[in-house]
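Figure 6 in text form: structure in, sequence out.
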């Protein structure tokens, strides 16, 4: 059956709103700046400021912004108690989703939907999400949480809170680049979810909780946790080609490949790949890079399909020694900057997001009394 005019499955190609935050046309730009330049010239804090406020910060704005964010790196006691009390097998992203919901209860601006109120809350969430991920991680290992630094950058402080020691400049830079690349991506599923939630005049925390829920699936943020299991299942360079061919024959999707918008490759994957390779070289983990290379060649040859950002990110975080279940939470702690910017933009010119559906159910009929139903 052909689709009626105006209906596009998965809303492919449909313009769902207006934005001045990012464009994916001809490469990825945040507020007009190509991401290639942003990763060279800026750190994650500068990019988060750009997304929230619309311009890159001056030195003074940067210092003030960083001071506010770094000072907000703490959780209230009930939230820490909650993170400690939940079952050890709780998925870190689920714990983060609940923590964000609980953070709303101690945020005095929770009902303030002004631009200023949402900027304050967005800054606080940028500060709090990494702490929630790190605290939950350490509690789940029976370790004491590490108190956040007031000086380290977002990238360095996160690694510090997870590991308990300050990271190397190489690890910090690579983490920072990944955070910049994960920070924003136009009308992806989680951002559209966040905008839909707040279009009802709900609140930022609810939008972020919904965004995390949408991010979880493996067709979106969950893909970065599937990369190492694929490489480990392949196991050797010799096995790579036949493994991918068999997987394609079974019509399986290879996580970390393909994209709804980028059909000729994801610029973010090309930017992050050298960082994954560099750390792998340093840590004697080149086998995974070599297998990944063969997988890329086979996918390009057989499917004309290319890696997305999750493909190098999964390997990069593994080379940093991070455990797989915190990879999607890392995506969330970065994307919260983009979600917050979109919430502010949506509320700045809001109209309830309420599309229609194509009805394909039973035709009009009458209700029968219960004893006549079969
Ligand atoms: C991202 C994604 C959901 C986009 O999908 P989409 O635009 O809806 O593409 P479609 O589902 O229409 O797929 C088109 C065809 O390519 C195939 N395909 C898409 N992604 C594939 C992948 N990663 N591996 C193998 N085949 C894939 C589909 O099976 C489909 O084949 P068919 O026409 O024979 O049925 C999809 O590429 C995917 O599932 N990728 C893996 C998950 C992932 O990495 N997600 C992170 C995205 S940043």
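Output sequence:
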């Amino acid at each position: 059956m052909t689709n009626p005019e105006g209906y596009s499955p998965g809303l492919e190609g449909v313009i769902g709103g207006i934005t001045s935050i990012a464009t994916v046309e001809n490469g990825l730009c945040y507020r007009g700046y190509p991401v290639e330049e942003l990763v060279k010239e800026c750190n994650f804090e500068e990019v988060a400021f750009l997304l929230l406020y619309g311009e890159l910060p001056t030195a003074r704005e940067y210092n003030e912004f960083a001071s506010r964010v770094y000072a907000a790196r703490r959780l209230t006691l009930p939230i820490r108690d909650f993170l400690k009390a939940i079952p050890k097998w709780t998925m870190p992203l689920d714990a983060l989703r609940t923590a964000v919901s609980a953070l709303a209860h101690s945020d005095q601006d929770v009902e303030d939907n002004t631009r200023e109120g949402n900027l304050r809350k967005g800054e606080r969430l940028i500060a709090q999400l990494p702490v929630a991920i790190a605290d939950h991680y350490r509690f789940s290992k029976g370790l004491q949480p590490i108190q956040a630094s007031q000086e380290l950058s977002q990238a360095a402080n996160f690694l510090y809170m997870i590991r308990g020691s300050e990271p190397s400049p190489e690890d910090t830079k690579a983490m920072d680049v990944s955070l910049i690349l994960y920070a924003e991506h136009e009308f992806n599923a989680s951002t559209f979810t966040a905008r839909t939630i707040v279009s009802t005049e709900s609140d930022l925390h609810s939008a972020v909780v919904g965004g995390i829920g949408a991010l979880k699936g493996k067709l979106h943020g969950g893909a970065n946790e599937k990369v190492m299991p694929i490489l480990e299942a392949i196991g050797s360079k010799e096995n790579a080609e036949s493994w991918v061919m068999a997987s394609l024959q079974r019509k399986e999707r290879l996580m970390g490949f393909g994209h709804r918008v980028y059909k000729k490759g994801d610029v973010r994957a090309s930017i992050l790949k050298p960082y994954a390779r560099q750390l792998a070289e340093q840590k004697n983990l080149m086998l995974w890079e070599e297998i990944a290379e063969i997988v890329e060649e086979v996918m390009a040859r057989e499917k004309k399909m290319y890696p997305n950002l999750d493909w190098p990110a999964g390997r990069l975080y593994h080379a940093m020694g991070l455990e797989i279940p915190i990879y999607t939470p890392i995506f969330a702690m970065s994307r919260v900057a983009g979600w917050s910017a979109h919430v502010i933009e949506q509320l700045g010119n809001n109209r309830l997001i309420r599309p229609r559906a194509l009805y394909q159910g039973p035709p009009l009929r009458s209700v029968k009394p219960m004893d006549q139903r079969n």
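Caption detail: The domain at 224-319 is CATH 1.10.230.10 (Cytochrome p450-Terp; domain 2).
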